[in-house]
Specification:
single chain, about 90 residues, alpha+beta, Gyrase A, domain 2, four-stranded antiparallel β-sheet, 3 helices, 4 strands, globular
Length: about 90
C-alpha cells in the first residue's frame, strides 16, 4: 500500500481526535478506569488487528495504553493505518 503524503495524513487526522502523527506513525495515548479495562481493550484490539492483518505497536501501563500504527513495508502511514485507528475509536465507543 502506498505511503500517504503529509497533507493527506493531516486531512484524515481531523476526524480522529487525540491521534497524532510523528516519526512516520499514528499514535494515541488512551486512559482507562482500571488496569484490567486497559488489558481488555488490548485483547479486543488484538482481535481486530488479526482480522485485518495489520498490527499496532502497543505500550501498556497502569490504566494507560499507547497505540501506534505504521506500515513498515511502506515506510510510513498508509490508508490501512487510518482504517485501524478508526477501529480503535469504534472499540472505545462501544
Amino acid at each position: 500500500m502506498k505511503k500517504l503524503s503529509l497533507s493527506q495524513i493531516n486531512e484524515q487526522l481531523i476526524d480522529l481526535p487525540g491521534w497524532a502523527f510523528a516519526n512516520d506513525a499514528l499514535h494515541k495515548e488512551l486512559s482507562f478506569d482500571s488496569y484490567l479495562h486497559g488489558i481488555n481493550f488490548v485483547k479486543q484490539l488484538a482481535d481486530k488487528a488479526e482480522e485485518h492483518n495489520h498490527h499496532p505497536d502497543l505500550t501498556v501501563g497502569w490504566c494507560k495504553v499507547g497505540v501506534t500504527f505504521t506500515t513498515h513495508d511502506s515506510g510510513g502511514v498508509t490508508e490501512n493505518d487510518f482504517i485501524m485507528a478508526k477501529k480503535v475509536e469504534l472499540l472505545l465507543n462501544d
